[in-house]
Design a protein that fits this description.
By secondary structure, the protein is α/β, with parallel strands linked by helices. It has seven helices and eleven strands. GO terms for molecular function: ATP binding.
């Protein structure tokens, strides 16, 4: 399997509190990888570093053989608008915008024409079975509908990698399963690589491989650590 994304010796602290203690991971093209572990172990921090949202204090982040951790914030933002998609636990939709406009937003920021962006947004709403919500604002939707809208927004640019941080954490079990089923189906259809952070073993079961963190380092007792030469380096 071709390597698409890697982190090497990632160290990150918040003030004097260490979050990542020298984590090394690799993700192959087309993989769905779950990052698991107890609360506070560094899962979300690892995802934010790999996605270029946070810059690590030490170590390297690479995407398609390009080291990106030293890029400017503007350059990393362009990468997220085009080749990376991000889905957060609470969706983070713009409250004042209806669903179609929320989904179209990444395309508009990338320079697409408004009509083209809305057409693409409507198509994604249809793929997710919520076309009737095109003109509904987030406050008029259920939690599951909001998260499916956020999933459409994350995928509308057809990113190479989708970063999903506890995407079902705020949903009941049925809504969570519906979102995960659609996330996995769409990722497989588009061959989108997925890095999925979760504390839920049922959610991790949707992934091809699991990486476990504990106290900011890879847990050697975790599953899937042999794939693609994964290893942990103590910080």
């Amino acid at each position: 399997m071709t390597q698409l994304l890697y982190g090497r010796g990632i160290v990150k602290s918040y003030g004097k509190t260490p979050a990542l203690r020298g984590v090394t991971v690799q993700v192959g093209e087309g993989e769905i990888v779950a990052v698991t572990g107890p609360s506070g172990c560094g899962k979300s921090t690892l995802l934010l570093c790999l996605a270029g949202i946070l810059r690590p204090d030490a170590g390297e982040i690479g995407y398609r053989d390009r080291r990106i951790d030293g890029w400017s914030e503007a350059a990393r933002a362009r990468l997220r608008r085009g080749e990376f998609g991000v889905l957060f636990q609470f969706g983070q939709l713009v409250a004042e915008m209806p669903a179609a406009e929320n989904i179209a937003l990444p395309l508009l920021l990338a320079g697409a024409r408004r009509r083209e962006a809305r057409t693409a947004a409507i198509a994604w709403l249809e793929r997710l079975g919520i076309a009737h919500l095109a003109d509904s604002r987030p406050g008029e939707m259920s939690g599951g509908e909001q998260q499916r809208t956020a999933l459409a927004r994350a995928l509308v640019t057809e990113p190479r990698i989708l970063f999903a941080d506890e995407p079902t954490g705020a949903l009941d079990s049925l809504a969570g399963e519906q979102v995960l089923d659609q996330l996995v189906r769409l990722a497989r259809e588009q061959r989108t690589t997925v890095v999925l952070v979760t504390h839920d073993a049922r959610v991790a079961g949707y992934a091809d491989r699991e990486i476990m963190l504990r106290d900011g380092a890879l847990d050697p007792s975790g599953l899937g650590l042999s794939g693609l030469g994964l290893s942990g380096v103590a910080g």
